[in-house]
Amino acid sequence: MLITSENLARLNVGFNSKFNGGFSGAETVYDKICMRANSSGSEEVYAWLGQLPSIREWIGSRTINNLELQGFSIENKKFESTVSVPRTSIEDDKVGAFAPLFEDLGRRAAEFPDVLFASLVGSGFNTNCYDGQFFFDTDHPVTAADGVTVLPVSNMQAGAGPAWFLLDLSRPVRPFIYQERMPFILQRRTNEGDENVFVQDDYHYGVRGRCNVGFGLWQMAYASKAPLTVGNYETARAALANMRGDNGRKLGVKGTHLLVPSAIEGDGRRIVKNQLSADGSSNPWIDSAELIVSPWLD
Fold it and tell me: What pLDDT is stored for residue 147 in this prediction?
């Protein structure tokens, strides 16, 4: 191939097409689980993570509920991945060999939020959320009906196995946040005056994006490291259903999605997908939650 600006432009269009095809064809889980937030700065502060107010009968004046600023923020991070294409390969018309690379680069860019999300979920057992407790903890502080007494509320079950999670994803407010500042795009350095072209005789293509993940409402998530059995699944559902906010008010939380790592996918399917239980009787929990399997979870 003769190296001209016109031929390079056509080549870049082809590489972009492969990248976009890989990006759009990727199967991801973060977009099913996380609340998506668009960011306009270096970080975003989530003031609404304080207890959200309930609706009451309007008698007399309105009751003003101040959204508590808990000091919880998510800072955007910058991510990249760069590949090099030898100029000689383009001159020798070997560009077809690089097409799968750009398609896979698009797929990896689309899946990267899944990697971030899996790391976030795994850290929930030892990372604080907005109330100062670990996101998955046994003693989140919640006030009782008298508005004074503080009671410990748990959203986890201890154990030594792979962690699985029961989530309420039926609401706009979710237990996890995916924050995007700049979407992932494919950039290039292919001009004759670029140092990589002149000195290294290579064309550089790179992916760049700015984003991050963070914790939302812990009340919408229950985690367990105990075996994923029918009994423990029932325990998780009951814990979410009985979740209460400040002043002892019921939150109406329900387990809509069961998130599991690949290692225990079979256990999850037996509970929420099988028509029959292990003893041959009808399975009362079939379709009680949508199963989500993440290959990125430990």
Answer: 84
